[in-house]
Amino acid sequence: MAPLGAETPLPRWPWVLLGLLLAGVMGAGVLWVPPAAPAEVRISLPEFTLTDQEGRTVGSRDLKGRVWVAGFIFTRCTGICPLVTERMLSLQAREPGLDLVSFTVDPDHDTPEVLKAYAQSHGAKPGRWRFLTGPREPLYRLIGQGFRLSVAAAPEGTSEPPTHSDRLALVDRRLRIRGLYSSGDGEDMGRLHRDLEALLREP
How many angstroms separate the CA atoms of 34 and 184, rounded? Predict the structure, then answer.
């Protein structure tokens, strides 16, 4: 019996067992990691009202209660926009329960009529894939302050195009951004598909 007040030594077998277990796991080249949860940025979007390719008023109230992915393009773009639109088209084909929304960053040129022709030429399904335009100031404010993404108009008197982010935004039924994904990054696109499938299963 240990003297009164002396520390009683802890049994060694739990530590030995733990050491053997870790050694076996590491020796096999396997390390268990908890599965990653969906991206949870959870930025709440402000209310907005814009115009779609059919000339109809569409806003945040119409999208609330739905899972959707937002992309940012302009129809005259020859840079990243074709890839962004291609990624959206892939999502349309793969995820039947998903809505898609493309916001133009060139609203002076991209009227509803121009956007409708663009949508038709890229196989956008009416009712599932909306192309939105509107006055530049509230549109840019939504992109910059709502989605927290970069956007800038071309300098006046130049032929430079607008600049904008290539990211896609995953938005939940409560109008919260759950993830931002670079359309040019294959790993990001894989993560988007996984997060989207998890989000669609949420009640």
Answer: 27
CATH (domain of 114)? 3.40.30.10
pLDDT, tens only, 73-83 = 999 999 999 99
Using one digit for the tens of pLDDT, what is the confidence trace for 165-182?
A: 999 999 999 999 999 999
**Residue 7 domain-assigned (yes or no):** no
Look at the block and give the residue holding tokens 């709440």: 44
**How far apart are the C-alpha atoms of 147 and 143, rounded to whole Å?**
5
What amino acid occupies position 54?
A: E
Q: Which domain holds residue 99?
A: 43-201
Over residues 76-128, the pLDDT tens digits come to 999 999 999 999 999 999 988 899 999 999 999 999 999 999 999 999 999 99
Closest CA to 162 of 108, 111, 122: 108
Alpha-helical regions (H) of 37-125: 60-63, 81-94, 112-121
What is the three-state SS of 84-104?
Answer: HHHHHHHHHHHCCCCEEEEEE
Answer whether 0.90 is exceeded by the pTM.
Answer: no
